[in-house]
Design brief:
Helices cover 25% and strands 28% of the residues. It has 340 residues and is an alpha/beta fold. The strands form four sheets. Strands 3, 5, 6, 9, 10, 17 and 18 form a seven-stranded mixed β-sheet that branches. A six-stranded parallel β-sheet has the order 13-12-11-14-15-16, with helices on both faces.
């Protein structure tokens, strides 16, 4: 079968590898129908993802149709359309035994540490394979369950509830997923970006306030909105060296600041920025068994995955897809790769 592999930074190719086989009675074989490209895939390609190992068959946002099941699998059957959770915890370390398996001490993630979903077939533990209704989530969009699980995990960690005032910095795919889930929870959401097209999309998806921070003073806008108090919840989906300190500055006393970034380059932060306001500074990574919640909410129509996708390429055109994302980011929200 064919798969997409990054051998080293800036070296992407389509390779021929062996088709995987079910190795345990609890595994499932899935024929991949679609995969979507994430910023972390680009980070592996560019060499900026601090967690990556090479060579890597990339892709952690994927799904497809069940082709075979192990003898003891009861949760899915041949022919089911499924989304595949890429998180592979060990099950016995401290985080795993305290319901935090997404930050397992021995964590492996498909597409980063293990072979990913940008291949024609994958195997996965049945516990990580989740059925969807193809009438509500089509095969070409099933890969988008995973990015929405990131948004749900962020808002869970941020303890977002009805009536909360939330600032999401960045209208990229992660920011737009966070927005849609926050609105589903009843929050009031302000979105920022430097691209008007992304802000317009955020507005269409329900953002209450949008602000182009290239042309406007975010600090002044937040002060005007909150009578100078600051934002109760700030979510940094920009993930730059300067956005983390800025998020701390924009939060109100007793506020919550959520950080998504995976860069290994330090940001400069004074401890007083946190202690003076007694902020909750919260990291968030991947998802912690959020797929069933995402699928149920998506099937109920609270999310709009079709608006997240802007482009579709056949997987053999992955080089063109990466070129588009890297050179014309203003045109892209999510690029979906078809494996049909």
């Amino acid at each position: 079968m064919k798969a997409i592999r990054v051998d080293k930074p800036m070296a992407l190719e389509i390779v021929e590898i062996d088709k995987p086989a079910i190795a345990t009675p609890y595994e499932v074989l899935v024929k991949v129908t679609s995969g979507s490209i994430c910023g972390s895939d680009l980070g592996i390609y560019k060499g900026t993802n601090s967690l990556a190992t090479y060579p890597a068959i990339i892709g952690h946002e994927y799904g497809g149709v069940v082709e075979a099941v192990g003898d003891l699998v009861k949760s899915v059957k041949i022919g089911d359309l499924v989304a595949v959770d890429p998180v592979r915890p060990c099950g016995h370390c401290y985080p795993c035994t305290h319901n935090r398996e997404n930050v397992c001490s021995n964590l492996e993630v498909c597409g980063v540490h293990l072979p990913g979903g940008f291949s024609e077939y994958v195997t996965a533990p049945a516990a990580r394979v989740h059925t969807v209704d193809p009438a509500k989530i089509p095969a070409d969009l099933v890969c988008l369950v995973e990015p929405f699980s990131i948004g749900v995990q962020v808002n869970h960690r941020a303890r977002i509830e009805k009536g909360d005032l939330v600032l999401v910095m960045g209208c990229g795919p992660a920011g737009l997923c966070i927005l849609q889930d926050a609105k589903a929870r009843g929050a009031r959401v302000m979105m920022t970006d430097i691209l008007d097209a992304r802000l317009e999309e955020a507005k269409r998806l329900g953002a209450d306030i949008v602000l182009n921070v290239k042309n406007n003073d975010l600090r002044a806008a937040v002060d005007n909105l909150t009578n100078g108090e600051g934002m109760p919840v700030v979510i940094d989906a920009v993930c730059s060296l300067t956005s983390f300190p800025q998020a701390l500055d924009l939060a109100c006393p007793a506020g919550r600041v959520l950080i998504l970034g995976l860069s290994a380059t330090p940001s400069e932060v004074a401890s007083v920025a946190i202690t003076k306001k007694e902020l909750d500074v919260i990291g968030t990574r991947l998802n912690n068994r959020r797929f069933p919640e995402v699928i149920a909410t998506m099937e109920q129509g609270y999310y709009q995955p079709e608006r997240l996708r802007t482009h579709t390429f056949h997987f053999t055109e992955v080089a063109q897809a990466f070129d588009l994302i890297l050179n014309h980011p203003e045109e892209v929200r999510k690029v979906v790769l078809s494996f049909a």
